[in-house]
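Customer escalation, tier 2.

The customer says the design service returned an amino acid string that "doesn't look like it belongs to this structure." They asked us to rerun it and document both sides in this ticket. The original structure tokens are below, unchanged.
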């Protein structure tokens, strides 16, 4: 073949076209991957929302400074607050005054990055002033920097069981703990 068969200008033009096509194909691949990631994130969010909203226990998400970010219907029913009433308060405001500092050491350990999860028995105040006894499981969700982004708290209302004299649950006897799940599960026997 004759090396002069193609004009250098045509060769340059063809090279440029190949680069442009390659660039366009790369962009199409990146856009397809981005759309797949957005779709997966949306599905994941929908699964979380379904779990959160249908949970039989109370669930809330709190900012590191204690402001409510989310609350499921079970928690609203348990506490008697409307969503707007609850979101106008902080977590500390609905805790029994005697319990407000009970978890401070665990909270400080989470904020220092020593732990991500803890359990505490708490007394919460309903909107009508009644006391709710609850077993709480607190999980920190961290940013990529390691800072706490928010907390997810599961609250099981054990008020009725707390009032039964001689009940093992009232004495706080834990029968087993499932440490395999992201938030942990407690199984109590009465």
């Amino acid at each position: 073949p004759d090396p002069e068969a193609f004009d250098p200008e045509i060769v340059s033009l063809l090279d440029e076209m190949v680069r442009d096509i390659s660039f366009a194909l790369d962009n199409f691949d990146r856009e397809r991957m981005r759309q797949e990631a957005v779709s997966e994130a949306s599905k994941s969010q929908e699964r979380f929302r379904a779990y959160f909203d249908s949970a039989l226990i109370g669930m809330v998400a709190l900012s590191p400074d204690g402001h409510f970010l989310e609350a499921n219907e079970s928690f609203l029913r348990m506490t008697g607050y409307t969503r707007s009433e609850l979101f106008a308060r902080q977590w500390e405001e609905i805790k029994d005054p005697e319990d407000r500092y009970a978890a401070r050491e665990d909270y400080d350990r989470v904020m220092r990055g020593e732990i991500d999860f803890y359990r505490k028995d708490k007394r919460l105040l309903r909107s009508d002033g009644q006391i709710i006894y609850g077993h709480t499981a607190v999980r920190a969700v961290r940013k990529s920097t390691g800072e706490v982004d928010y907390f997810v708290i599961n609250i099981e209302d054990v008020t009725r069981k707390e009032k039964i004299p001689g009940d093992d649950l009232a004495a706080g006897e834990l029968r087993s703990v499932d440490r395999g799940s992201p938030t942990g599960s407690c199984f109590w026997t009465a």
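Tier 2 assessment: The sequence is consistent with the input. DSSP finds five helices and seven strands in the chain. The chain has two domains: 1-54, 56-188. Sent an explanation to the customer and offered a walkthrough call.
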